[in-house]
Amino acid sequence: MKLTAQLKLLPTPDQADALRRTLEAANAACDYISRIAWDTKTFGKFDLQKICYSAVRETFGLAAQMTIRVLGKVGDAYKLDTSVCRTFRPRGAIAYDNRILSYALPDSSVSIWTLDGRQSIPFVCGERQRQLLANQHGETDLAYIRGGWYLFAVCEVEEPTPTDVDGVLGIDMGVTNIAVDNDGEIHSGKAIKNVRYRHRSLRKKLQGRRTHGARRRLKKLAGQEYRFATWVNHNLSKRIVAKAKRTKRAIAVEDLTHIRTRVRATRSQRATLHSWAFAQLRAFIAYKAALAGVPVHAVDPRNTSRTCPKCGCIAKANRKTQASFVCTHCGLAGHADVIAAGNISGRAPVSVPHYPAADSSAD
After folding, report:
1. What pLDDT score was predicted for residue 351?
2. Cβ-based neighbours of 261, under 8 Å, separated by 6 or more
3. In the chain, which residues have pLDDT < 70?
4. What is the pLDDT of residue 354?
5. What would the CATH number be for the domain defined by 167-192+237-347?
6. Could you give the CA distance from residue 130 to residue 155 in angstroms, rounded to a whole number?
7. DSSP state letters, 40-53
8. pTM to 2 decimal places
9. Terminal alpha carbon distance of the chain
10. What's the gap between Cα 52 and its chain centre?
11. How far apart, in whole angstroms, are the C-alpha atoms of residue 147 and residue 153?
12. Residue among 199, 348, 174 nearest 263 (CA)
């Protein structure tokens, strides 16, 4: 499994200036290559290398390997589609490999190529990130974020063999309740909804003022809502995986891909629906479960909250309100999200124990 370790660089003013000029030169080279790719309709990085490798090195003063990296960045940008000429932000992130960046873990520093030559720059990170760096393998992105310099290093982590399980922990994800399991444990989304509403109202108010002070405040607020939601999802996914591991169960979640295009939402509900971070929560559960050796299954979400687990009746009328479920056929009642989580658990594939075949020659 590949995980990303985030490190914060602590450059001197001269080193920060060298990093800034290196990013700007690399992204200017990307724009130059992109225009050539667009004009010649040549979008593969190997074909582009044949056309403009020497010109890029001479024009922008980049090292050989940095030139290869910017060619790769342009080639990757055109993999999505070739219908528009790609442009690059002056300080967009640039990928480094082990030929132009190396780690000195005992000294907590990196040796990184810049336009001023190699620079040894100290970094700070948590203990978890330091452990990941021991298995660093692949590219490292250099990024300039809100006035700070960061490295995002790709690290290889060995996944344990999935453990044998005795059941399935079904997880129903939603907006009102972020996650509900079939044991009846409910993780409310009230805190996130309040934060999102407060930030949305404040942004609207500040944007209407159009003053320098309002713009400074908006800049300070940028990203706070996202970081809070990410923190909540990290903690919630950790609790879910820990519970599944402790009770020796697999995890079943809904496959909500393209859910926003399938759901009809009123005007007042659109902002809430489109800020729902269900994909992030599922991704966090998946990678934490893989590290813990807990199997994860994605199941069909259709009618999970409208199906009676007792008689199998499927009806829209079964869901009386957001929170209540009453079967119109057999009268089974309960919390709608808990019943949905139970249905999700029941849809997960169950591993059948393997028994060795009996020897047919034995009597």
Report:
1. 55
2. none
3. 265, 268, 350-363
4. 47
5. 3.30.420
6. 11
7. HT---HHHHHHHHH
8. 0.79
9. 49
10. 34
11. 19
12. 174
Q: Are 137 and 156 in contact (CB under 8 A)?
A: yes
pLDDT at 350: 63
Q: What are the structure tokens assigned to 211, written together?
A: 């003053």
Q: What is the CA radius of gyration of the chain?
A: 26
The DSSP code for 67 is H
The DSSP 8-state label assigned to residue 166 in this structure reads S
Q: Are 34 and 86 in contact (CB under 8 A)?
A: yes
For residue 265, how many other CB atoms are within 10 A of its CB?
Answer: 12
Two tokens, residue 251: 């995890």
Sheet arrangement for strand 186-188: 186-188, 177-181, 167-173, 249-254, 296-299
- Residues 111 and 102: their CA atoms lie apart, in Å, by 5
What's the full length of the chain, in residues?
Answer: 363
Helices (H) and strands (E) in the chain, counts: 11, 14
The domains of the chain are located at: 2-156, 167-192+237-347
Contact 342/353 with Cβ under 8 angstroms?
no
